[in-house]
Amino acid sequence: MSILAQMSDESTTESDRRVRVLDAALAVFARYGFRKTSMEEVARAADISRQGLYLHFRDKEALFRAAIARMMETGLARVDAELAREAPLGTRLYGAMLAWHGRSSGTAPEHLDDLFERSVALLRDLMERSGAAVLERLAAAIAAAPLSSRLLDQGLTPLDAARTLDACGQGLKHEKLSRDDFKRRLAAAVSLVTGERL
Description:
The chain has helices at residues 3-36, 39-46, 50-56, 60-84, 89-101, 109-143, 147-153, 158-173, 179-194. It is mainly α. The chain has a domain at 59-194: Tetracycline Repressor, domain 2 (Orthogonal Bundle), CATH 1.10.357. Helix 1 packs across helix 2, helix 5 packs antiparallel against helix 6 and helix 5 runs antiparallel to helix 9 (179-194). The longest helix is centred in the middle third of the chain and has 35 residues, at 109-143. The chain is elongated, with a radius of gyration of 19 Å.
């Protein structure tokens, strides 16, 4: 194996390890909340030594920041994938909204408020930029569909519809519904906006 190929394999392995650690950290933070999560618990969940975890992240706050940033990044990628599907607009919007707002539905509710507050305190700019990016993507999908002309007839824009859907998703997310109830009510919101039965 050439040195370049070996270096590429090592960087891929390192990247995979980092993803595994961040995914494990998200699960542990969701289970225990920020305050009760320990680096030891995350290391155990990620199947890595505590010292190895500290090589990647200097402390729990740095780990939390990186885990939330990964969650935002993967959430946006899932929104893009849902909106790019060959499906009716309502189905695509529902999939995108579920990908973005449904990530924490069904999670133990006692830690959601703590994690949200901590996320806002540490990563407000990233959260605002990511939320704005989702709105832009939803509005673009609506603008490219026949729904856009129906909205214009009512004096509304695709961005108005996107904001309405986003507000519904935000509200439902904070109601601490079961996953099934969240999905059912999200589908109703998308149906109301698009006029499509889901």
